[in-house]
Write a structure and sequence with these properties.
4-stranded antiparallel β-sheet, Methylamine Dehydrogenase, Chain H, 1 helix, globular
């Protein structure tokens, strides 16, 4: 697959447009703290959506002088299958030296080290007990309070909490009756998830045997399963066709 050429040239007074050579599904914006600590200038990661094994992720650098998004051949890499989500480290510090971290989900959870002019794979996290099959990951969320934790959601009805510093699973929960579409942290040990079964559930890692259903339907929806959720302490948001809560 050919890399894009000049980045973004289309802009208006209040926006900058990047034209990609392929359909884009996933996107992430680097933390302001990364630029503050001198790790990298503000960046945008974009991931392709192609119905084939070989997909593409690019890191676009925001150029303040020219108000453009600039591509760099060294800051792009092939990705197995379309990435379902991308995230930069939510709270990078000066201790991370000259690199930022990017995480992608798809077949597995993958960590990448983003340097000034290159990207290197750090680790691939897979909790499958067999090498022949892995349940695709629909999404993940990075815990801002405890950045060593990342929670993933999967089509196999589970949510998995990873300790990415050790590269091990902290816990795995059967979270729903059907595919889990999204996961979001609320605080250090509390997260929410949404599913094709039509429910929003909150889990507290201090009590893994129970969950709180804060939204649900009597019968699983046939047309409009809930696809995305966000949890912020006492607030929650649910997004789907004709479904909203706050």
């Amino acid at each position: 697959m050919e890399n894009s050429t000049q980045g973004s040239n289309l802009r208006s007074e209040n926006s900058v447009t990047y034209e990609s050579p392929y359909p884009i599904f996933a996107m992430a914006v680097s933390s302001f703290a990364a630029a503050h600590h001198g790790l990298r200038r503000r960046s945008v990661a974009v991931g392709s959506f192609l119905e084939e094994y070989k997909n593409r992720v690019e890191i676009l650098s925001f150029e303040e002088d020219t108000v453009t998004l600039k591509t760099n051949p060294g800051l792009a890499f092939d990705h197995p299958y379309p990435p379902t989500k991308l995230m930069f480290h939510p709270n990078p510090t000066a201790s991370m030296k000259s690199a930022d971290l990017l995480v992608s989900s798809g077949d597995y959870l993958r960590l990448w080290e983003v340097r000034e002019a290159s990207i290197e794979p750090v680790s691939t996290l897979n909790n499958s007990k067999t090498s022949e099959y892995c349940a695709p990951l629909t999404s993940f969320d990075w815990n801002e309070v405890e950045p060593r934790r990342i929670g993933t959601s999967s089509i196999d009805t589970t949510c998995t909490i990873w300790d990415i510093e050790k590269g091990v699973v902290e816990t795995q929960l059967i979270a729903h009756d059907k595919e889990v579409y999204d996961i979001a942290w609320g605080e250090a040990g509390v997260f929410s998830s949404v599913s094709a079964d039509g429910s929003v559930r909150i889990f507290d890692l201090r009590d893994k045997e129970h969950s709180t259903i804060i939204y649900g339907v009597r019968e699983p929806p046939t047309r409009h399963p809930i696809a995305q959720a966000g949890l912020e302490q006492a607030r929650f948001k649910v997004h789907g066709d004709n479904i909203n809560g706050q």
